[in-house]
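Per reviewer request, we include the raw input and output of the structure prediction for the construct analysed in the revised manuscript.
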Amino acid sequence: MPHQLNPDQLNADPLNTDPSSPDLARALPLNHEVIVVGGGPAGLAAAIGLARAGVPTALVTGPERGVDQRTTALMEGSVQILTAYGLWERLAPHTAPLRDLRIVDATRRLMRAPEVTFRAAEIGLEAFGYNIENEALRGELTTAALATPNLHIARASLTDVSVAGEAARVFLDDGSTLTARLVIAADGRQSRVRQALGIGLKSQAYPQVALTFTVAHARPHEDISTEFHTETGPFTLVPLPGLRSSIVCVVSEREAVTLLGLDDTALARELERRAHSILGAFTLQPGRGAFPLSAETARSLVGERVALMAEAAHVMPPIGAQGLNLGLRDADALVRAVGAAFAAGRDPGEADLLAGYERERRLDIEGRMRAVDLLNRSLLSDLVPVQGLRGLGLYLLDRVGPLRRRLMRLGVGSQAA
């Protein structure tokens, strides 16, 4: 039978001995089966999914977060996951559908690729995904977490983690300690859990900065997301509810400084120019973001009684809407594996389960990383053969139906693909 927990044992530490001692780890009562560290959208989804699967779970939220003016395109695979966790119904009213995805070569190079439009209806979907403002996403998930039985919320930050024998201990800055069989690190790119385990990173820095904005515009977007390919990276318009869109503008570091130095009126005009006025006049809304482009992957996704997920495991450039969607697939892989183990009376932190998670997720993560890296480098390259290959690839996607539909299914991360 699964381990039965006594809520009265929360923070109990009846033994005065070395906290890393295997004997202590066996003797300590378990507060929970799983502790999720990190209160971002991916960590919230993982904690809710585990708790609703019947697994006694704690969520360590981490420090208070500032307002996040960015948006996230939740692709169809993520919508399926959130629906399975009973969360999509509360998120949907805050979203705008992405029914068509249009790619336009806006470079001034000798060889330019043809314009290509991908339509969700071609693969039987109402939309490829849905764009949502991050504050609405995090707010709704937090509200759902607070109302989820079987889920303990610890509004504190991790100071240390130790693993020994059959348990892991998480030490918090409010003086409390949680114990569990498995710790899931969803605590971001500066993950303290990953650092405590000594897991290194494979890193790739790019000579670019991603600028993020939200604009109101005069013309309707008609649920079409448009990506202009430029010599410095993609310039992408993503629909939001109403006459609004979010923008991700990838530029050189020098150009980023210039753009951020413009006042709101001048910046709105410049963004409209880069969008070729397809949505009419722009009005800039509050919130400007600037994020140096990099790609990072943890050298291992697991340690003893620890699994890394989302940005604790991988950081992707904001190209192709893969970041959080990849993290939600991490969450779902853990929910499925841990839920099945707990239901069968097995230890959810056992080495075999964690090795299986590593195998399942590694291929997806590295494949997406390579694809985004290849696209980005193809835009930066001035080599004519590279430009020709990129143009040929888009031409084939436009003309070869089976290839185009396969790519669309891969892009949305559909579980039915």
